[in-house]
Amino acid sequence: MKSRKIPALAGVLFLTVLLAGALIGQKAAPPRPSSDDLLVPRESCTSILIGKDASVDGSVMTTHTCDCGICDWTWRHVPAADHKPGSTRRILHISQYQTWPPAEGLKWDLVKKDYAGFEIPEVPHTYAYHHGMFGYMNENQVAIGESSIGNQRKMENPTPAAGLDLTMLTLLAMERARTAREAIHIMGSLAEKYGYGFHDEGEMLAVSDPAEAWIFEIMPVGPLWTPKSDKPGAVWCAERVPDDQVSVCPNESRIGEIELANKDMFLASPNVVSTAVEMGYYDPKSGKPFNWKRAYSPQEGSAVSSNGRIQRLWRFFDLAAPSLKLRPEMPNMDLPFSVKPDRKLSLQDVMDMTRDRSYGTPFDPVQGIRGGPFKNPSYFRQTRLIDDGRAEYTTVTQCRASLPGPIGGIVWISFGSQDTACYMPFYAGATELPRSFAVGDHWIFSRDSARWAFDYTDFHVQVAYSEAIKDVKAAQARYEGETIARIPEIDKQALELYKKQPGEAARFLTAFGLNNAKTVVDAWWKLGDEILVKYNRLYLYDTQKRIYERGKPATPDWWKKAVRIFDILSEPEKKDNR
């Protein structure tokens, strides 16, 4: 996701396309929220990709941190459906940012009013899937993660001519795709035909299935494009992550030089090079090979030169393959597309990566006095970390070739800041998500919303972070760790049912997901209460012995000394009254 400033030129462009939209009876996209509008940092959504031979259990994994701070966090399940010949699919414009007060209804009901003005031919059968801000997992184990990457400014197309935005593309992929490659071709071809942009700019999708993981990047082609242009309405490219390697997208274009003849590793729109030539981003006469990211979405700087603003790319590779000794001074554009990890990664390893706060690096948010007396990483927000405290939710998807689609696919969902939340699994074959996942709003507290349970605990952890986070980790080990350990047995039971009666397997998997989520959400409400009591007024209250230890976890001695030194240094000089 993204939050970009809109310069004056873009504002003029918006007014122009708004007028054009009015003249043809359609409205242009509203201005995108800027960093100043949202009062939050810029993009912090990280998407990790793990090849099947780079994981411990042979699963292909992807992640997505849905960062924002003000966006909708609700989820729903969409069932499979059969459609009569000649049916059409209504296309909607779905903003990543727009929300409505709960009293007006749920986002995924109200967004149906934002009709894009056209319909496309429906396919005979659409698949079942789970979605939040985007489509994440369908019954065929086609999975998606997302990260905004931006594009050259004159490529933007917020006009009504751009019929498809990113969320709509992912929903169509979930409905129609049997494989990751098929999902890429579906999204790419539809965007070429009907135009891409409106609400969105350059975007990356981590598209995976049990066999492959791909980085798919798509961008608009400028505000002058119309369906009558006889040219593709989007430009896109996809590169496959080698099976024994891992990759990441931290809001930066990741695809460099491309080999279009190598269909096993690269896919692209027919205008992948010509658009760059026409727009002046690439000169074939230069003798240099075409480089996708340098042409369409260059990201200058390094982890060090940006003072940590773009350190997540380096940090992920340093976590996955420290033996490479990649230096944070290396320009991000020169860092590799993917690397072979020093060891195969487990599901828990990947979850832990989503919680990384760059501790022990030059970008450590609690180094020195940055984190205050309780080493709180939320105080210092001058760097971008993989763990994003503003996250609406985070997903980890697993696609496993050893099991049928409904059982092999799992999307793990964690609400709010990763470090204080808990991942909960939902199988691809589940036919229902919890009601508590479908409701909630940033501006109205609700005990009916699962998300608020995790924010409730997170809020109380912030008071005495270094102490309270220990209680959260213990709860994660119990509810998350034990659930991960149970998955092989759940798989086995579901497979036995599936062989006899697939419907029974679906009911079993649905019940497992719902019951586990209720247990975890209830536990987090209770955990928030317990942390409030235990660290109330910055004393340590022992609820079992009904005693408290005065001064624990009161501010540590080093902090008190630092305050005294600061007080001395900041005392005003005494005036000489002689």
Keywords:
6-stranded antiparallel β-sheet, 5-stranded antiparallel β-sheet
List the helices and strands and how they pair.
Layout: H1 8-23, H2 35-38, E1 47-50, E2 60-66, E3 76-78, E4 81-82, E5 88-92, H3 107-110, E6 115-121, E7 125-126, E8 129-131, E9 135-138, E10 143-148, H4 166-176, H5 180-194, E11 203-208, E12 213-219, E13 235-240, E14 246-249, E15 266-268, H6 274-278, H7 292-296, H8 312-320, H9 347-354, E16 393-399, H10 405-408, E17 410-415, E18 424-427, H11 450-461, H12 465-500, H13 502-534, E19 540-542, E20 547-549, H14 557-570
Antiparallel strand pairs: 1-2, 1-14, 2-16, 3-8, 4-7, 5-6, 8-9, 10-11, 11-12, 12-13, 13-15, 16-17, 17-18, 19-20
Helix pairs in contact: 4-5, 11-13, 12-13
